[in-house]
Fold each of these.
Amino acid sequence: MGARVQATTLAYAPFLVFDSCGDSEDSPCQVSGMVVDLFNLMARKSNFTWEIYREPSGLWGSMPFGNGTAADAVGVIGAAINHLTDVPLSVWGINL
């Protein structure tokens, strides 16, 4: 069995939908959608397993400007910057 990866995200239907989550922030969620299908494919091809968690702040994330530091980053992006998650899972798309 390969590496275990922790992903953090927010719902973005229909691409990523939370089907159910545990009672606490530390409980992984059951998810579905196109992004999940793609990530499952990557996991099989790259030999890793993964769990996904809902970002408790409800923010996609941002970095502060000015005197802010990485520790001030928030949301899904902040979780990755501050090493609270391995993958800030998001919707991948291109607008044409």
Amino acid sequence: MLAITAAVGLSYYSLLPDLSLLLTPLVITLDRCAGTEAVAHRRVMIVACLILLLAPASMWFFGSYFYLVSLPTLFLLFVMTIAERGRNTPRSDPANEHVNLAE
């Protein structure tokens, strides 16, 4: 998910049809937030997804400034990175750390 979001957010030629690639990370992120699993920064992730879903509507107001759509994409990337970092940290000591195999 991070790789897809980073590729779209950092690409030089990211146009409106290219934003369809972000549907998969958006759906997976929103599904993870809707589940019973504890997710770090759940509300911020939901807000980032909603902002990104509404970002293409900026074409009506700022047609010549479409590069501003990259800001919500990079914000979602930042929030997803923070959430994944918190998800991948170990919560307890490894099970075999206190086992003495020499005895």
